[in-house]
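User: Hello, can you help with two protein structures?

Assistant: Certainly.
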Amino acid sequence: MTHTEFKQARHLLGLTQSQMGQMLSVSPQHIRRMETSPTNKSARQVNGTTARLVTAYLDGYRPTDWPQI
């Protein structure tokens, strides 16, 4: 999953960076870095586990602690 796909997924899910961070157990800053272009030094790649979980969210999976939107 690219940084652009990750950001689009977050928007489709209607989550803020803070809420996405909560769902993935990372800081909002880490979410920002995963959404940053890879040409930026502070960028972080979206790892396979995160991509699979985000895909499950897009497919309709919602854990019990899903943020109320």
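That covers the first. Now for the second protein you mentioned:
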Amino acid sequence: MRGFLEQMLFTPKWYHYPFMLLLFPLSVVYGIIMSVRRMVTPQKNFGIPIVSVGNLIVGGSGKTPFVIALATRLEDVVIISRGYGRTSKGLVEVSFEGKILTDVTQSGDEPMLMAQSLPKASVIVSENRELAIALAKEKGAKCIILDDGFNRVEIEKFEIVLEPEQIKNYLPFPAGAFREFWFNKKYADIVAKEGKAFFRQVYFDNLTTKMVLVTAISNPSRLDSYLPEGVVQKVYLADHAYFDEEKLKILLSECEAQSILVTEKDVVKMQGFKLPISEMKLKLEIKETIFTQVDEYIKGYPQ
């Protein structure tokens, strides 16, 4: 059922359209509510430059590698994320200036990946973004990156919205993958279109001749065009799900495979696993004009 729904949201087939038609009125109502919310909610200025990296659709669009690429260029930067998939609640400091302060169950997979990838940045997770912003300022942040922050309409910020290369369903939730009407991207300062403003570069570590793909990301079929030869089976878990080492060992044995192929987001949840792991890594090539606009916003922010 999960696979059917994911396909309907992202790459619908003819047999999805009756369901989409039934859900269409709810999608319109939801889209209107979200648009009205955006128009009537006052924005709060926090006295610090805040750059939001977000998108309009549920699921992956490259936000995490985009945040990493952006944070690499900035000094005294704190990344604030919701921390989806974590077992903790409330505010958790994931890292401070590159020092890891907790484990992946408390942080969530994406914040941990960012923390491990950024030796000079700090990472905080919190449902309450205002509380996290206050802590970031207390810790000496000069700027903040708000991960997945486009829908945080109450916060005054510089908006970057990432737009996937191919969109086949433009409907808002629940008939489609959009969190708002697609044209609400007009509220962004930058709309970064994949294939024009940024490009994916995929490379691999420790490939073997026979692998099982195991991943816990949203819309996992988007990996298909990047997969190397030698993948004999694909196992998809729910987005942000955790892995059972013993089950993976059994899977390797049943498939007579030499390694488990996972993404960077998955591998942070396999620390300490005694398993042969092949890793799919993603890096973004981002147009310099985007960095220039962000730099101008930060430099021009009133002190």
